[in-house]
Amino acid sequence: MTATARPTPLNFRIGARTLMAVQRDMVRVPLSLDEAREGRLPVLPPLPRDAHGYVVTSLPEDRLEAMVYASGRMIGFVRQKYTRYYADLTGGFDAYMAGLSGNARQAAKRKAKKIAQVSGGDLDIRAYRTPAELETFHDIARRIALRTYQEKLMGEGLPATPEFIRGMLTAAAGDRVRAWLLFIAGEPAAYLYCPAHGETLVYEYVGHDPAFNDLSPGAVLQVEAFRDLFGEEKFARFDFTEGDGQHKRQYSTGGVPCVDVLLLRPSLTNRVTTAALGGFNKTVAGGKALVEAVGLEKLSKKLRRG
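Predicted structure:
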């Protein structure tokens, strides 16, 4: 199968503000959680003639040099660093909860109790796994998705395309998907959609109605989904996928330090671009550190005077 290259921006960014972007057509090569945990290097597909290179995601940080070498000495540029978090689903729900921090356990209990009180005394969590059930789930979850920030800001809520629905129903027919909805006082408040890859369940689409922000419905739904999964004993791991986040850190049991790396053809233009971007990023990081240091010094002086 011929690899497909897609436009990928190399952003010159300060905080959330992008000053400029250089577009490159890149082939995405994602690593699975198992590949990341085992430190396996991905096999790079043949690069289309008009593509500039690859974006390798979730590459274990300690395999970066080996990946650049395996690429034939392409230009390697680290796009971002993060921990790929996951939860072990093999030890039982009580043991899992006991492994969380005391603050996380207390917060989970408090949030669940609050939602139960609003809902008449009990949590209303509904699980979906068969094709017929997933059709019902999708209709309700899609209506929630339309109100989420993921959909409004990034267009990344639960998809409604025919391709996605066909894939969802096919996965359900093979018992390769799990999904949940949380209802609060009878109203659909949050959804979680997770396809399965072997023994790993993947955190793919999640969202909640912002009208229920104060009740933290997503956190409550996550814990109750784990309760179901530990009881089912079918899956070994829950993959929180790429990127960082407090939610992932809080409910994970392990993680792999990873990088997303660009592997670019060794052209003069690409060398100049990555050198400029690398220098820019160092300058921004140095400026941020200086601002923080100055701020701490001012605070220290105030404390000494006080």
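Summary: Residues 263 and 272 are 14 Å apart (CA to CA).
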